[in-house]
Design brief:
Blueprint (H helix, E strand, L loop, with lengths): L3 H4 L5 E16 L4 E14 L2 E7 L9 H11 L10 H9 L5 H19 L3 H4 L10 E4 L4 H11 L5 E5 L7 H9 L6 E4 L6 H13 L5 E2 L9 H7 L4 E3 L9 H7 L2 E4 L1 H4 L2 H13 L3 E4 L6 H8 L7 E2 L16 E3 L2 E3 L14
Parallel strand pairs: 4-5, 5-6, 6-7, 7-8, 8-9, 9-10, 10-11
Antiparallel strand pairs: 1-2, 2-3, 12-13
The chain binds magnesium ion.
Length: 349
């Protein structure tokens, strides 16, 4: 039986390594194309039990797998000797700027460790149900016909489709029209910061007419036009690149109707839950998103999903082969395992 008294005697041990994830197909968005992603897997050992977490570093914010690995190797000792002391550990980690993906890996691994020490799944530890909104499936950026073909293929498996826009070729509305022509599934779009205010004001009424549910990050993060767009957009605006941590929420409420929470930006489950509650207090919609991640990263994201209106947790499903099985796609919903911790099997770290 787990004894909290013993916890104070043994420091939490940290191991980490870079893992390459190969994608089933090349993934294209407005600013980049990739056929693989590098993440970092971290293993925390304590009292003979091992907890795992994943860092999915975001290049857009100056992070890489190498910088995340360096952070984990240099600052692992900040975890101390009590894996349940999340508030204190979080305060120590917050003193070092940046590297939110690495911090998220530690936070996920601590939750996994806690669950395993107590014999309960993380969602139960958090007092949340083993459920969430259906995940969207990402239709990455391509020609309108190509996007329509891919949408048609994936629509039977997924209950929501998220279209990547921002082609910079004047065809973004055509992309949505082409997809709308082949499926009745709810559609969401993500522009990844690629429109000007003028382009957004011209496109959004047409997207509204095509039944698009909401538009994610149409403008560049920090764009002064955000307030005007929130006032004039006929469909909800969700921000992603504008929304990182709890301290961003008040500004997000001025420029958007909703926020996209990602553990790789927030620094983990704990901060994302704070953000979800702050969003509700500010009258905002909430979604949980992901990066290109294995099932280990997605399992942590699933724990926040019950607090959200929308989920975009398809990262592991875009891989050629998920090295960390555990999460199951059930009727379009990414459902975490019922076993203790995050319930994910992780190859040797
Ligand atoms: Mg996004």
């Amino acid at each position: 039986m787990y004894s909290p008294r013993a916890v104070r005697l043994t420091p939490v041990q940290v191991r980490a390594r870079i893992v390459r994830l190969d994608l089933a197909e090349t993934f294209v968005i407005s600013r980049e194309a990739s056929d693989h992603a590098e993440v970092v897997h971290v293993a925390l050992s304590h009292e003979g039990v091992v907890g795992y977490g994943e860092a999915a570093p975001v290049e857009r914010y100056g992070e890489s797998a190498a910088s995340a690995l360096r952070f984990l190797e240099e600052h692992g000792s900040l975890l101390g000797d009590d894996p349940f002391a999340l508030e204190e550990i979080g305060s120590r980690l917050a003193e070092i700027p940046g590297e939110h993906a690495a911090k998220a890996a530690l936070d996920a691994a601590l939750h996994d460790l806690q669950g395993k020490l107590l014999g309960v799944p993380v969602w139960k530890l958090l007092g949340l149900p083993r459920a969430g909104p259906p995940t969207s499936w990402t239709i990455w950026l391509g020609d309108p016909d190509d996007m329509a073909r891919r949408a048609e293929r994936s629509a039977p498996r997924f209950r929501r489709l998220k279209l990547k826009l921002g082609g910079g070729d004047g065809l973004d509305v055509e992309r949505v029209r082409a997809v709308r022509g082949v499926t009745d599934r709810p559609l969401q779009v993500d522009v990844n910061e690629w429109w000007s205010l003028e382009e957004a004001l011209a496109a959004l009424p047409q997207l509204a007419a095509l039944g698009v549910e909401y538009c994610e990050q149409p403008l560049r993060a920090g764009d002064e036009g955000g307030r005007v767009l929130k006032e004039r957009s006929p469909i909800p605006i969700y921000v992603d690149e504008d929304c990182h941590v709890l301290a961003d929420m008040a500004r997000c409420a001025e420029i958007a109707h909703g926020v996209n929470l990602k553990l790789a930006k927030s620094g983990g489950i704990r901060e994302a839950i704070r953000m979800a509650h702050a969003a509700r207090a500010l009258g905002l919609g909430v979604m949980v998103g992901c990066m290109l991640e294995s099932g280990l990263g997605i399992a942590a994201g699933c724990c926040v999903a019950p607090l959200c209106d929308h989920a975009d947790l398809d990262g592991n499903l875009l891989l050629a082969d998920d090295p960390c099985p555990g999460v199951a796609l059930v009727d379009g919903v990414q459902v975490p395992a019922a076993s203790p911790g995050l319930g994910v099997s992780v190859p040797h770290v």
